[in-house]
Specification:
Two copies of one chain form a homodimer. Chain A is built from twelve helices and 16 strands. Chain A is α/β, with parallel strands linked by helices.
Chain lengths: 368, 368
């Protein structure tokens, strides 16, 4: 048996998305993520809290692993680095990631995918999935608070599942704000930009709000006090580290707060600000018993999105399938099989550099 | 900045080893591993116990991650699967692994290496490094108990650092025993095979013994009672799972037992059989204060080798360097860099499949 491993670098992922279509990929991912989470109760799965290295030397950084095992659907480990010095020191993104997908039966590597675009796609899709349960179905006004990379797929994903007519956008950085409309233009909705002085007015108009900022830990929550619409649903995407907070605790306490993954959200998400009893249903419970939560569509709700390994698994498996259909990517077959599994050298030719006396001194004596 | 990631599949690793020479690679690895472990106190590093998924469905298997961070030398995560049903069900090895090496400063992926041959190489090298401290320098008779894949590099590595004149070999499986001489022939030492009835006599002749069996957990220890030479040094390689044991506890208690990694060895290694006070210095202590332990060269010693992420890191980094010198492997540049780090879609061309009304409905309204 040969194990075929498909490698998709960032350009390959972009090519697949371009060929299939940005919206078709997003729609497919929203659908796949919904069905996977709904079906989790029917198979064994394990997805522990992410863990990793946090270090100060040679410079401040994180390298984390996010593993997810599924009885029927493969096993995925996402390896993700966060190195905030990258943009200035190396002209590299601060977040770099690689997603490894394994066959659960054999442990063979099925695919390796660059995680940059996939992370944005799955985070957008997750907000759409949660918002479809908790957001008001007639939501027409979408707010985007923080206009970096994650905002693009948030705005896209929400526009795919709600009758969004306008996007209201704010960023603290003037350049990021000024270029936001261009990044969001493909969504086909008018974008209104707001200044810092105007941002409360913006927040008060939103039916759905996505917060996707990258504030320093300890400086938040970044949202100012404002008077929300009765049915406001917030997707809080930016909180993914201890003391990195976006939503004021008063607003959280008035809302049904649903974490993607309870244990992780209590350490890294908005749920840091809440006691256990103040936290609502998690992603699994929300989708398994969807009707139970529809009454919350007319009141305040928050999806506390810290990023869940299950989402990475679904996104990577989906893009690998699409890539195989499109014939994109390199077949790298990392796990080539040796002719004699008992001889680690059996893939080499005849030995050419053994010990000096090789050959002449070999004598096999059997005493048994 | 472009990140160049080098991918080495199993055939690439074999090609590098063939070009450089099996013994030159082993010698280099023994040297590199010695220097790295000796120098660990001078830099920050973290190498937690391996963790992973253990599951019964769809069939019994393990998928584990073995991470190691180094302040100055990169960060490595080995992903390793153990699926004992592979040989029969799929004609695949039971152990498959992939080693990912990252740049610690940026988190960028530097290399991906198939781990099969590397695991055998580093396990052999580790035994040589430990044996050089603890084994009798005049050791001429090497015992190999269990003649599968790991035995090949054990016998090779020990023959590189001791004046080995003969290899005594035993395996419970007649076919594995019968083919052992062929696998070991490149080492250039006579191989004497022993039957089950003769194995105590074999064990009693050894100066150094490597146990590398794969007995079922709960059925060991696999070594019979025997009367060892006064200075016998054992490299116990096969114990790497709860209740998987090779060395009888009486023999352990008469020996200085040195684990590669204390926390892991107490859970998975021979040290499971000992209390904390009965365990000797670990690999770091052994190499940092080598002279302190030379007196043990004339008495009983055991190196409890469970497999340490530091060894995988050294082996993968070394083979990646050699591969670059040889021009072997694929440059896969997994982390291609998008033109606009704030736009996850910026590696795509112009949008071609946006929402139906794309373009005509785009209107940018700035209110700030």
């Amino acid at each position: 048996m040969t194990l075929n491993s498909l490698l998709l670098n960032a350009k390959d992922v972009a090519t697949v998305v371009e060929r299939i279509g940005r919206d078709s990929v997003m729609d497919g991912l929203i659908d796949r993520l919904t069905r996977t989470i709904r079906g989790l109760h029917s198979q064994k799965f394990q997805a522990p809290e992410r863990a990793g290295f946090s270090y100060e030397e040679p410079e401040w950084g994180l390298l984390e692993w996010m593993p997810a095992y599924f009885q029927n659907d493969g096993t995925t480990v996402k390896l993700v680095g966060y190195h905030p010095g990258n943009p200035e020191a190396r002209n590299l993104p601060s977040v770099l990631s690689t997603i490894c997908v394994f066959d659960t039966s054999s442990g063979g590597l099925k695919g390796l995918v660059d995680g940059t675009l996939l992370t944005a796609l799955r985070t957008g899709a997750a907000s759409a999935v949660a918002s479809r349960v908790l957001g008001h179905p007639d939501s027409t006004t979408l707010g985007i608070f923080g206009c970096g990379a994650q905002s693009v797929t948030q705005a896209q994903a929400l526009s795919r599942v709600f009758p969004i007519e306008r996007i209201l956008a704010y960023d603290i950085d003037p350049h990021t704000a000024a270029t936001a409309s261009e990044r969001l233009s493909f969504i086909g909705r008018p974008v209104e930009l707001f200044s810092t002085a105007e941002r409360e007015r913006m927040l008060e108009r939103c039916d759905i709000l996505c917060t996707c900022t990258s504030a320093e830990p300890g400086t938040g929550p970044v949202l100012p006090e404002f008077d929300p619409r009765d049915h406001l649903h917030i997707n809080a995407v930016g909180s993914d580290f201890a003391e990195k907070l976006e939503v004021p605790v008063d607003l959280l306490r008035k809302s049904l707060v649903c974490p993607d993954f309870r244990g992780q959200a209590m350490v890294e998400g908005e749920c840091q600000q809440l006691s256990e009893e103040e936290i609502g249903p998690d992603f699994c419970e929300l989708l398994e018993n969807e009707e139970r939560y529809h009454s919350h569509r007319s009141s305040l709700t928050v999806f506390d999105s810290t990023g869940w390994a299950v989402e990475d698994h679904v996104a990577a498996s989906f893009i690998l399938e699409l890539a195989r259909e499109c014939g994109v990517g390199q077949d790298v077959s990392l796990d080539n099989i040796a002719p004699d599994p008992k001889d680690p050298y059996s893939m080499l030719g005849n030995p050419t550099a053994a010990s000096p006396a090789s050959g002449s001194r070999v004598a096999v004596v059997t005493t048994s």
